[in-house]
Automatic annotation (TrEMBL):
Protein name from the UniProt record: Leucine-rich repeat-containing N-terminal plant-type domain-containing protein
PANTHER family the UniProt entry points to: LEUCINE-RICH REPEAT DOMAIN, L DOMAIN-LIKE PROTEIN-RELATED (PTHR48063:SF106), LRR RECEPTOR-LIKE KINASE (PTHR48063)
Domain of life of the source: Eukaryota
Species name: Tagetes erecta (African marigold)
Membrane topology category: Single-pass type I membrane protein
Location within or outside the cell: Cell membrane
Taxonomic lineage from the root: Eukaryota, Viridiplantae, Streptophyta, Embryophyta, Tracheophyta
Length: 981
C-alpha cells in the first residue's frame, strides 16, 4: 500500500516537476475525421473492451473516453490505462490486437495503454510519434523485442515499460525483451525511466546509455537482472529516485552512488549488498525514503543516518547489523516508519525514540534487544499504530493507568518477554486489530475486559502459552470483519465447552487445549468465509460435527485426536466444496467411506486410527485430486479396488493395519508419483509385483510387512533409487537377497534437502504451519533409513554388497534361513543403530569391524551357529547383555559366561567418529522461529523475480493457505517489491 501511494505521488507531481505541456481538452473542437477512423479501427480490433469504449461512437471523437485533442482537433492524448487492483483488472481491461491504425495519430503527445491484455508485440510505429512526451506501456502485455525506434522520441520525458504480474498466462509467455539499450541514450529529454521487472540481463550495457541522460530524475530498474558496473563518472546527478531492488549486486554499495546527492528516494532492497552502510548516505539531505532491507549489511547502523532530517521511511530489516540503535535517533523528527527487524541489533532502546512524534510504524522484531520499554520511550510517540517486538527480549512496562497512550492497530510480541500475566495495559488499546502475544510464557486466564477489545480484532494469536479457563466468546456483529478473522489459540489450557462457534472467522486453530463437549454449529451466514478449522488434540465428543463439511468455503478441516463418533456426512455431489484437507484421525468414527466420494477437491484425506468398516469404495477413484490418503488402523476389508489407480496425483498411500486381501492390484502401477506406499499388516497374497520396482521410481518408503506374500524378492526393486525404507518382513518370501540391493542409492547417502525447490517449499510451509502435517508431507525427511527382511524364508548368504548401504540405520534380517558368514566389512555401515541377524544359520566368527559401529544401540545375533571370541571395544562394550549372543554355542568371552581358550580376546580401539550429519532436512525446515523466517525471507530475496521463479512463486502463494505469520511474511515481502505497485 505504501508503495502504491508513492507511485501515485510520483505520477501526479510529474507534470509539475517536468513542465510537461499542459493538455487541455477543448470541448469545442471538431475531431479530425481520419484520426477518428483510426480510433474506430483500433477499437474494432479489440476482442474485449468490457464496455470501456462505449462512448466511442459519433463524430465528436475529442469527447470520447480517454481521448483529448488540441485546438485543431488533433488527438494529442490517449489514456486507456485500466485502473484498479490487480485482482479486479481482468474484469475491466482491454484485450486483443493493438491495431497499427493508431500510427495515424501523428500529434500524440501522451499515450498510456498500461494494464491491459494486448496480444501484440510492442509496435515499431511508436517510434514515429515525434511529439510524444509521455509513454506508458507498463503491464500492457505487449511483448516482443522493445523496438529501438523508440530512440527517435527526442521529446519523450516519461517512459514506463514496467512488467506487471498480470492475471493472464500469456502475459508471461511473451514478456518483452530488451536486447540492447543504446537507443535510450538518444532520449535526450527523458526525466523518468522505469524498467522494473524487465529482464535486461547482465550482458546488456544499460549504464552507459542511461549515463548520457544528464537530466534524468527517476530511474527504476528493480528486478531486471542487471549488473552494476563500477564506473568512473556518473552523469545523472540530478536523480531524485533510484530503485535497484531485487537485482543481485553482490558487492559493497557502489561508490558512484555518493554523487547522487539529490536523491529523495533510494531503494536498494533485495540486492545482496554487503559491507557497511556507507556514511555518505547521511549527507543525502533530501532523502525521505531509504530501503536497504534484505541485504548482508553488517556492523553498526551509522550515526550519521540521524542527520537525515527529512527521512520518513527507513527500512534496514533483514541484514546483519549489530550493536545498539543510534542514540540520536530522536533527531529524525519526520520519521514515520522504522523497520529494523531481523538483524543482530542489541542493547537497550534509547529513550530518544520518545521524540519521534510522527512515528507510525515501529518494527524491532527478531533482534537481541533487551531491557525495558517504558512510557518514556513513547513520550511523544502518539501516532504509533504498528508495533512489533516479537522475538526480542524487551519488556514492555506500561501501566494500565497510562494516560494519553498511542492507539495501536497492530501489536506483535510473539516470543517476547511478557511474563506470566496477561498484559493489562492492552485495555487502553481500543483500536487494536492485530494482536500476537503467542509463546510468551503467559500463565493466566483471559481478563474480563478482553472481550471489549477482542470484538475489533482481526488477527489474534495467543497460542503457545498456558492460558486457562474458558475460551472467550468471540462474538462480533456480522457486518464487521467481513474478510474474516484469524483466531489462533492453540497449545494453551483452555477448558470447558464452547458456548458458540465464533462468527466471521476465516482461520481458527483451537488445537491442543482441554476443550470438551459438543462443537457448536456454524453456518454460512455466521461464517461466510470460514477456510481453516483446526480443533485437533482436545476432548471434544459427540457426533462428528458434520456442519463443517457443508460450509462451502472450508479448505482445511482437522478434527483429529478427539473423541468424536458417528458416521461421515453424506456429501452431495452438487455441493460447491473447497475441502482440501480432511484430517479426522484418532477418533471413534465408524461406518463406510463411500460418503466422501463426491468431494473431488480433497487433496489430503486422513481417516487413520478410527473404526471405519467395509470395503474401500470403488468411487474413491473419483477423488483425482488426492495426494495423500491414510486409512491406517481401521477395519477395512476386501480387495483394493482397481480405480484407486486413477489417483495419479497420489504421493502417499497408507493402508496399514486393516484386513485387506487379495493381490496388490496392478492398477497401482499408474501411481507414478508415489513416494510412500504402506500396505503393511493386511492379508495381501500373491507375489511382490515387479512393477513396483519398474514403475514407481519415486518410492522412498515401501512397507509390505506382515502380509501373506510369497515368491522371491524381485530384482526390479533394485531400480528404486530413492528408496530409504524397505520392509518385507513377516511374509512367506523365499529365495535369496538380491546382491543388487547394494545399489539402492537412497540407502547409501543421506538425502540432502535438494536446495530451494519451490514446490517442496510449499509443502514445508504446510509442515511448518502444523507440526503434525509434517507426517503427511515430508515423511521422507526424518525417516530412519532401514532395511527389514525379517521373518521370511530367505535362504543363501548375506551378500557382501549390502555393506555398500552405508546410510543404513537399521538392518533386520532375523528369522530367516540365512547361512554363511557375517560380512567382514559390516563395520562399513557406520550409521547403523540397530542390527538384528538373530535366528538364522550364520556361522563363523563375529567380525572385529563390528566394534566400529559407534551408534549401535541394539544388537541381536542370537540363535545362529557363530563361534569364536566376541569382539571387544567401543560401543560393543555397552551392549553387554548375554542374550545378544544366546544360542550360539561356539561363542566365548564376555558377556557370555564361557571363557575363551588362550588369549583370543582382541581389543580394537576405533576413534569415536563424530562426523555424522544431522538429519538435516527435518530440522532445517521445521527449525521454526527466526532461523526459519530468515531462511524464508532469504528465499524470497533470492528469487530476484526471474520469470521462471516468478510463476512458480505465485503458484505457491496461491496454494498455501493463509496462516498468520506466513501471510505476514508474505505481505512484508510483497510490500517491498515495487514490482507489485
Ligand atoms: C464554441 O463554438 C461556438 C460556435 O461554434 C462559439 O459560439 C463559442 O463561443 C465557442 N466556445 C468556445 C469556448 O470556444
Ligand atoms: C554525460 O552526458 C553527456 C551528455 O549529456 C555526454 O556527452 C557525456 O559523454 C556523458 N558522460 C559519460 C561519462 O557518459
Ligand atoms: C563525484 O563527484 C566528484 C566531485 O564532484 C568527482 O570528482 C567524481 O569524479 C565524481 N565521481 C563519479 C563516480 O562520478
Amino acid at each position: 500500500m505504501k508503495t502504491s501511494f508513492l507511485v501515485i505521488c510520483t505520477f501526479f507531481s510529474f507534470f509539475q516537476r517536468f513542465g510537461l505541456s499542459i493538455i487541455t481538452s477543448s470541448s469545442n473542437v471538431t475531431c479530425i475525421k481520419s484520426e477518428r477512423q483510426s480510433l474506430l479501427v483500433f477499437k474494432n480490433a479489440l476482442t474485449r473492451t468490457n464496455n470501456r469504449l462505449s462512448t466511442w461512437t459519433g463524430i465528436e471523437c475529442c469527447e470520447w473516453h480517454g481521448v483529448e485533442c488540441d485546438r485543431n482537433g488533433h488527438v494529442v492524448k490517449l489514456d486507456l490505462r485500466t485502473r484498479g487492483s490487480l485482482e479486479t483488472i481482468k474484469f475491466k481491461w482491454l484485450t486483443g490486437e493493438f491495431s497499427p491504425s493508431l500510427q495515424n495519430l501523428k500529434h500524440l503527445r501522451y499515450l498510456d495503454v498500461s494494464m491491459n491484455g494486448f496480444t501484440s508485440n510492442i509496435p515499431k510505429f511508436l517510434g514515429s510519434f515525434e511529439r510524444l512526451e509521455y509513454l506508458n506501456l507498463s503491464g500492457s502485455s505487449l511483448g516482443g523485442v522493445v523496438p529501438h525506434h523508440l530512440g527517435n522520441l527526442s521529446r519523450l520525458q516519461y517512459l514506463d515499460l514496467t512488467i506487471q504480474i498480470l492475471p493472464l498466462e500469456h502475459a508471461f509467455d511473451k514478456e518483452p525483451i530488451l536486447d540492447d539499450m543504446r537507443w535510450v541514450s538518444s532520449l535526450t529529454s527523458l526525466r523518468h525511466l522505469d524498467l522494473t521487472g524487465m529482464n535486461i540481463g547482465e550482458h546488456v550495457d544499460w549504464f552507459n546509455p542511461v549515463n548520457m541522460l544528464s537530466s534524468l530524475l527517476t530511474l527504476n530498474l528493480g528486478a531486471s537482472n542487471i549488473n552494476i558496473p563500477s564506473i568512473k563518472y556518473v552523469n545523472f546527478t540530478s536523480l531524485n529516485t533510484l530503485g535497484l531492488s531485487s537485482n543481485s549486486i553482490n558487492s559493497n554499495v557502489p561508490m558512484w552512488l555518493s554523487n547522487l546527492t539529490a536523491l529523495t528516494h533510494l531503494d536498494l532492497s533485495f540486492t545482496d549488498l554487503r559491507g557497511q552502510i556507507p556514511d555518505y548516505i547521511g549527507t543525502f539531505n533530501a532523502l525521505s525514503f531509504l530501503d536497504l532491507s534484505v541485504n548482508h549489511f553488517e556492523n553498526s547502523i551509522p550515526d550519521v543516518l540521524c542527520n537525515l532530517s527529512n527521512l520518513v521511511h527507513l527500512d534496514l530489516s533483514v541484514n546483519k547489523l549489530s550493536g545498539p540503535i543510534p542514540s540520536m535517533l530522536g533527531l529524525i523528527l519526520k520519521l514515520e516508519d522504522l523497520s529494523l527487524q531481523f538483524n543482530k541489533l542489541s542493547g537497550n532502546i534509547s529513550t530518544s525514540l520518545g521524540q519521534l512524534s510522527n512515528l507510525k510504524q515501529l518494527d524491532l522484531s527478531g533482534n537481541s534487544f533487551a531491557g525495558v520499554l517504558s512510557e518514556a520511550h513513547f513520550a511523544k510517540v502518539k501516532k504509533l499504530n504498528y508495533l512489533d517486538l516479537s522475538r526480542t527480549s524487551l519488556v514492555l512496562n506500561i501501566t494500565s493507568q497510562w494516560t494519553d497512550p498511542f492507539q495501536l492497530q497492530t501489536f506483535y510480541a510473539s516470543s517476547c518477554n511478557v511474563v506470566q500475566r496477561f498484559p493489562y495495559w492492552l485495555q487502553t488499546q481500543t483500536k487494536l486489530q492485530r494482536l500476537d502475544i503467542s509463546n510468551s510464557s503467559i500463565i493466566d486466564t483471559i481478563p474480563d475486559w478482553f472481550e471489549n477489545i477482542s470484538s475489533n480484532i482481526l488477527e489474534l494469536d495467543l497460542s503457545k502459552n498456558q492460558i486457562g479457563g474458558k475460551m472467550p466468546r468471540f462474538h462480533v456483529d456480522s457486518s464487521k470483519h467481513i474478510n474474516g478473522r484469524i483466531l489462533n489459540m492453540n497449545s494453551n489450557k483452555f477448558e470447558g465447552s464452547l458456548a458458540t462457534f465464533p462468527s466471521n472467522v476465516r482461520w481458527l486453530d483451537f488445537s491442543n487445549n482441554l476443550l470438551s463437549g459438543h462443537v457448536p454449529p456454524t453456518n454460512k451466514t455466521m461464517n461466510p468465509i470460514l477456510e481453516y478449522v483446526v480443533l485437533s488434540e482436545n476432548r471434544f465428543s459427540g457426533n462428528i460435527p458434520i456442519h463443517f463439511f457443508k460450509v462451502p468455503s472450508i479448505r482445511v478441516l482437522d478434527l483429529s485426536y478427539n473423541l468424536f463418533s458417528g458416521h461421515l456426512p453424506q456429501m452431495d455431489g452438487t455441493m460447491n466444496s473447497s475441502l482440501n484437507y480432511v484430517i479426522l484421525s484418532r477418533n471413534d468414527l465408524a461406518g463406510s467411506l463411500v460418503r466422501l466420494c463426491n468431494v473431488s477437491t480433497i487433496r489430503v484425506l486422513d481417516l487413520s486410527h478410527n473404526k471405519f468398516v467395509g470395503r474401500i469404495p470403488r468411487c474413491l477413484g473419483n477423488l483425482i485430486n488426492l495426494e495423500i490418503i491414510d486409512l491406517t488402523n481401521n477395519t477395512i476389508t476386501g480387495v483394493v479396488p482397481s480405480p484407486l489407480g486413477h489417483l495419479y496425483r497420489l504421493t502417499t498411500l497408507h493402508l496399514h493395519n486393516n484386513t485387506l486381501e487379495g493381490d496388490i492390484p496392478s492398477s497401482l502401477q499408474n501411481l507414478t508419483r508415489l513416494v510412500t506406499m504402506d500396505l503393511g499388516n493386511n492379508l495381501f497374497t500373491g507375489t511382490i509385483p515387479l512393477w513396483i520396482g519398474e514403475k514407481l521410481s519415486k518410492l522412498s518408503f515401501l512397507n509390505l510387512q506382515s502380509n501373506k506374500l510369497t515368491g522371491n524378492i524381485p530384482v526390479q526393486l533394485c531400480q528404486l533409487n530413492a528408496l530409504q525404507y524397505l520392509s518385507l518382513a513377516n511374509n512367506n518370501i523365499t529365495g535369496k537377497i538380491p546382491p543388487c540391493f547394494g545399489n539402492l542409492s537412497g540407502m547409501i547417502t543421506h538425502q540432502d534437502d535438494s536446495g530451494y525447490d519451490v514446490y517442496n517449499y510449499e509443502e514445508n510451509i504446510l509442515a511448518f504451519v502444523k507440526g503434525k502435517q509434517l507426517l503427511y508431507t515430508t515423511t521422507i525427511m526424518f525417516l530412519t533409513i532401514s532395511l527389514d527382511l525379517s521373518s521370511n524364508n530367505i535362504v543363501g548368504e548375506i551378500p557382501d554388497a549390502l555393506m555398500n548401504l552405508v546410510g543404513l540405520m537399521s538392518l533386520n534380517l532375523s528369522r530367516n534361513l540365512l547361512k554363511g558368514y557375517i560380512p567382514m566389512n559390516i563395520g562399513d555401515l557406520t550409521q547403523l543403530e540397530s542390527l538384528d541377524l538373530s535366528m538364522n544359520k550364520l556361522s563363523g566368527r563375529i567380525p572385529q569391524s563390528l566394534t566400529s559401529l559407534t551408534f549401535l544401540s541394539f544388537l541381536n545375533l542370537s540363535f545362529n551357529n557363530l563361534s569364536g571370541a566376541i569382539p571387544v571395544g567401543n560401543q560393543l562394550q555397552t551392549l553387554d547383555d548375554a542374550s545378544v549372543y544366546e544360542g550360539n554355542d561356539g561363542l566365548c568371552g564376555p558377556p557370555v559366561s564361557k571363557s575363551c581358550k588362550g588369549n583370543e580376546t582382541t581389543y580394537n580401539d576405533v576413534d569415536g567418529d563424530d562426523g555424522r550429519d544431522e538429519t538435516k532436512g527435518f530440522w532445517f525446515y521445521a527449525g521454526m522461529g527466526p532461523g526459519f523466517v530468515v531462511a524464508f525471507m532469504g528465499f524470497l530475496g533470492s528469487l530476484h523475480f526471474i520469470k521462471r521463479w516468478r510463476v512458480a512463486y505465485f503458484k505457491m502463494v496461491d496454494n498455501v493457505y493463509t496462516w498468520l505469520s506466513v501471510s505476514m511474511l508474505l505481505n512484508l515481502a510483497l510490500q517491498r517489491r515495487n514490482v507489485f505497485k
